[in-house]
Design goal:
- It is a single chain.
- With 526 residues, this protein is α/β, with parallel strands linked by helices.
- It has four domains: 7-279, TIM Barrel (Alpha-Beta Barrel); 295-323, no CATH class; 325-386; 393-510, Alpha-isopropylmalate synthase LeuA, regulatory domain (Double Stranded RNA Binding Domain), CATH 3.30.160.270.
- The protein is built from 17 helices and 15 strands.
- It has helices spanning 26-39, 53-65, 79-88, 105-112, 116-131, 149-161, 178-195, 212-221, 243-252, 254-257, 268-279, 300-308, 336-345, 352-368, 374-386, 431-443, 488-505; strands at 7-10, 43-47, 70-76, 95-102, 137-142, 166-171, 200-205, 226-229, 393-403, 406-416, 421-427, 448-456, 465-472, 478-485, 514-515.
- It has an eight-stranded parallel β-barrel, surrounded by nine helices. The chain has a four-stranded mixed β-sheet with strand order 12-13-14-15. Strands 9-10-11 form a three-stranded antiparallel β-sheet.
- α3 (79-88) packs parallel to α5, α5 (116-131) runs parallel beside α6 and α6 packs parallel to α7 (178-195).
- The radius of gyration is 25 Å and the shape is globular.
- It binds 3-methyl-2-oxobutanoic acid and zinc ion.
Amino acid sequence: MTEPVVRIFDTTLRDGEQSPGVGLSLEEKLEIARQLERLGVDIIEAGFPVTSPGDMAAVQAIAATVRTPVICGLARTRRGDIDAAARGLERAAHPRIHTFTSGSRVHLEHMLRMTEEQALAAAVDAVGYARGFVDDVEFSAQDVARSDPAFLTRLYVAAVEAGATTINIPDTVGYTTPAEFAGIVRALREAVHGVNPAVVISVHTHDDLGLAVANALAGVGAGATQIECAVNGIGERAGNCALEEVVMALLTRRDHYGRRLQVRTEELYRTSQLVSKLTGMVVQPNKAVVGANAFAHEAGIHQDGVLKERTTYEIMRPEDVGVPESRLVLGKHSGRHALRERLTALGFRLGDAEFERAFTRFKELADKKRGIADADLAAIVQSEVVAAAPEIWRLQYFHVTAGTETVPTATVRVLRRDGEAVLESATGDGPVDAVYRAIDRAVGQGFVLADYALRAVTGGQDAVGEVTVRLADASGRTATAMGASTDVLEASARAYVAAVNKVLALPEAAAGTVYAGAAGAREPAV
Ligand code: KIV
Ligand code: ZN
């Protein structure tokens, strides 16, 4: 007997894009949607069309371009939302409208200001109305884990009677536990299958307690055949169920779960890298499946074991998830051809101008560091080439004096786009602060440093450090940018200048806009 299929419903572009600080442009959303199609996901939730013209345009563009997966648009249980979702999906080959309300009293009373009966009536109306546009309608009631089970059952049964073809069971606030969630899914499955046995049961879990993947898997154990998830687990607060983790758990433990998937797992790493670089959300090194250390072995016993027999410490093969195997060691003698090949293997598709910038930065790095690891290369190219805004200012050089008995002082020279060089100096509380104040002076404007984070990309004394900064100007325009170098101060300065360029690229009217994307992006976060 063939195993049942579990469908992967990707919500990176909707729930994932709701992550604080993320705002993707239309081109970036399209690029991610195309990669999700290559990855083989079954459904792409492309956005929430009623919320903004940007979301509407993105859903329309994805619906017109990405033909294999189902394209889904989100809508509250309001006719206006459903009209907008239907408009967004007009050109989709396989459209789905996903309409949602809430099941818990806390949501109904304080947020929706509705009684249970009003929510139920609106849900029935919305599902029936959506069926007037498309045959494929999904219904969700937020916050199931804190809802009254009897009301939930009535609500979901009513939605199925009204024509819902998928019922999605969301643990919106990441509150449930695997055993409890399995009970909720089982009870709802039995109730709705009593009305229509063909209805698809879906689970949607959040990671507030770090249980999103475990809860989704428990849902599958209880009969769910659709999982909603996001690449790298991005999403509201602590995020959504991580696509790459739930997929590899189901496949690696196929003996246990007995399910099949359509996903092409060799595309997982590339997808993760793409989402990380376009959202600016860094993948932590110890992240399961796609983190830099996911297949690295440090301890002697582990290295010895893996060298003798890989399966001693590896339950998945790196190539199964598309982690490129380095055969060439890149160094200062490597040329354009080798770099181009390695970047392609790492998932970067660069135009000629971008490639030349990457090559220049690669050569600068190779002068300082002997063997360049994939992670070093990815950090440099991702932060300073792919996710860079147009260069209004360029850091030419800087000099810092600092020490225990010295007031930190920095001198920087920056070049303006028109070629004019500006040299400025400043003192600061520390060397990084001094560099940042000197840059402020040189560009003639002050910025508030809202966030600063440093991480070592690779190990060793010549490790590449990656600095992420978030800056705001006086009008509230905010941008996130990264810089990478073997010198932490240089990485800090590069990140700061990149963020200045991004802030300055935002229109004045976009005060409050968060910009984390590549050149030209102007989309406010939803
Ligand atoms: O977390 C949630 O409840 C959601 C719904 C819109 C499905 O994202
Ligand atoms: Zn959600």
